Amino acid sequence: MTEDRGDHDVIVIGAGFAGLYQLIRLRDAGYDVRVLEAGGDVGGTWYWNRYPGARCDIESIEYSYSFDRALEQEWNWSERYASQPEILDYIRHVADRHDLRRDITFGTRVEAMRWDDVSERWTVRTHDGRSRTARFVIAATGCLSVPSRPDVEGLEDFGGELYWTSHWPHDGVDLEGKRVAVVGTGSSGLQTITAIAPVVGSLTVFQRTPSYAVPAHNGPIGRRLEDVKPGYPAFRDESRFSRLGFHCREGETGYFAETAAGDVRRELDDRWSDGGLCFTQSFRDVLFDVDANEALAEYVRERIREKVHDPETAEKLTPRSYPIGAKRMCVDTGYFEVYNRDNVSLVDLGEEPISRLTERGIVAGDVEHEFDVIIMATGFDAMTGALTAMDVRGTDGTLAEKWAAGPRTYLGLMAAGFPNLFMITGPQSPSVLSNMMTSIEYHVDWVTRALEYLRARGEHRMEPDVEAEDNWVNTTNDVGDLTLMPRAASWYMGANIPGKRRVFMPFVGGVGTYKQIGDGVAVAGYHGFETA
Ligand code: NA7
Fold first, then answer.
1. Ligand 1 contact, 189 CB (< 6 A)
2. What is the best residue among 17, 192, 328, 505 to mutate for testing ligand 1's pocket, by most ligand atoms within 8 Å of CB?
3. Mean pLDDT across 78-98
């Protein structure tokens, strides 16, 4: 390990995909960098989320680093969608290959940081009471890293085993033959439910809102990777300029513009049999036009009815209360079919809300359901949660105060009043609406370039203008309002966290457009930023 004197050019918070790549770039550029990571090893999301069935919903050929051209050729993914263990292996391999751990302090959670306007440095305090200083801080803290722990009465009273998908025990959990409950039916819930149903004695799913899910058609990766490898650099470039940060054939016509109804049906059937998140890109108006959206949603509802034998259960599993695509779509592998098993049942919390946990189980409606194990798959304080969980004090107050009415950033990279603090995939950037790998690499490259710009000019301070920030916040909101996205009570809106202001947080204008804006700002001498 290199010596951690406590005084650095740059402190990076987080050793997931973003933090590791940031370390590589800055170390290569000659900066003294220290990475602080709460977990016991590298991996971020993929370090913590070890629940059964955990898997990426972006294809393996896209969800990997592009900066290491040799690695890109050497690494072989085994499946179309990589599982959590395989992704964690990959991240560990990258850490070994680039000898990264020597600059990372593990088991260290950042609790507070304070900007000193005189020394123009950040002081960063960790949970063990230690302070370090740095000219720059880069928060690579992830968009979905602070679990949302619902305030359910009696959580402490449950006498059985209680687990959170977001903090799954490293040694695994023996569920064989047990009476198990899963609360939550987002991606984590769906994946867990599908994986454990054949193993457990009985499984009861507690569903607040049903999810739209498209089949993954996961399987061995076959020739797909070998076919892509010779042209990988060009393939990556296409992703960088695409809308979602990965290859997705975008529908060019509106849903109702198709002349023959048969064409629409064929297009949807083709996409359904291809599988994956591109399904919602079938027609260009799906996220803009209520009727087009409803038509697409109805197609998915039909598929659910086909898969689930019991009509009453099928109806409960059918999403109707929000536009398709306005909450994060799930990619499933036999999820709906799970409900045809004799050992699986569904509790619709709309009809029978959870009132409390008891020593024996969960009370929903008037019924006490008894369990050996309860698994909470209840999501995250998304996008802003990790940043506001730290006591971040800039020139005029804390980040939590500044963002009380919703996040305010310039390009999702910096916030006025917080000089020299960069965010990787921060709110108001494409982040969660994109292939995170594409967005992470873009932000890390952008930040590295910005630091080198300052260094070349003999400067050491950077901060957005309030006006540029206001304009970007308005742009993000305006673009979001053009779509149906704000119409769902989603974590994109902060709606899953009681008391959190409902604001549509990601930039929905697309990865390629965002890159053009970000590149333009840089080329124009960091237009909208003050440097000194
Ligand atoms: P999500 O997508 O936020 O899903 C959380 C689920 O938990 C969702 O169904 C919630 O219902 C449900 N939930 C949350 N709080 C409660 C309470 N209090 N009671 C009952 N049910 C609750 O998180 P995931 O971890 O599944 O997925 C996160 C992302 O990871 C995913 O989108 C991919 O990008 C990867 P709700 O819908 O809020 O009514």
1. yes
2. 328
3. 98
